[in-house]
Write a structure and sequence with these properties.
This protein is of the alpha+beta class. It is built from five helices and eleven strands; from the N terminus they run βαββββαβββααβββα. A hairpin with a 3-residue loop joins β4 and β5.
């Protein structure tokens, strides 16, 4: 991908942890929830949303009545995806941190309609697990009740922290513990809905989730 940094996405603090290459797409692929921010007449609002992406855009969706999506249409938005990989515990709380991967996308959100809207909904649904083809297709009414926005991946930046704590030299020989606490989340076995009418097989893509790390770039 081409360099997507801009003056408003270029990292200034912690610039050594900045990434501006394909690793940003890896974070988007591994994430599950995006926090989307937009300005409204009542003030700024940030909401968590499911999302998906292709090579050029990130897609967002929600109910047509969703206030954030209504204000985001044809407006500037900020889309943030963050994955916490562990706690970094230093000898002093001042140096405590987290290991993480994050991406910030900024740009104008465009409302989609017609075939583009349906294609984007499929991308969002299949982002975590390819479930579109093994479920009942959405009806025209359901699609009309859903708003879908796309934001170009032309202005974005990533930031990644790995490793242990960075303590003061004078503290290294002291009595206080320091280290990391990795966070390992994985999908459990699918649990059938109690109202299933009979022994319906779990779709292969859903069954394959069991045991897979939750933040896996596949």
């Amino acid at each position: 991908m081409s360099d997507a940094r801009s003056e408003r996405t270029r990292l200034r603090r912690g610039a050594a942890r900045a990434v501006y290459d394909e690793r940003m797409l890896d974070v988007l692929d591994a994430g599950i929830v995006a926090h989307v921010g937009v300005s409204t007449p009542e003030g700024p609002i940030v909401l968590p949303m499911a999302y998906g992406r292709d090579d050029e855009h990130v897609f967002l969706h929600g109910a047509v009545a969703n206030a954030l999506l209504a204000h985001a249409a044809d407006a500037d938005v900020c889309v943030t995806v963050t994955i916490v990989d562990g706690l970094v515990m230093a000898r002093t709380p001042f140096h405590n941190s987290m290991n993480y991967r994050s991406v910030v996308v900024r740009g104008r959100a465009e409302v989609l309609a017609g075939p583009e809207k349906v294609a984007a909904l499929r991308i969002i649904v299949d982002h975590v697990v390819a479930n579109w083809d093994t479920s009942r297709p959405p009806t025209e009414l359901e699609i009309r009740k859903t708003a879908v926005l796309r934001v170009p991946l032309t202005e974005m930046s990533g930031k990644v922290r790995t490793g242990g704590p960075v303590d003061e030299p004078d503290d290294l020989a002291g009595p206080h513990w320091a280290g990391t606490v990795p966070l390992a989340a994985a999908w459990a076995a699918p649990a059938p809905s109690p109202d299933l009418p009979g022994p319906i097989a779990v779709p292969p893509a859903i069954a394959a989730l069991e045991g897979r790390p939750a933040h896996d770039t596949r």
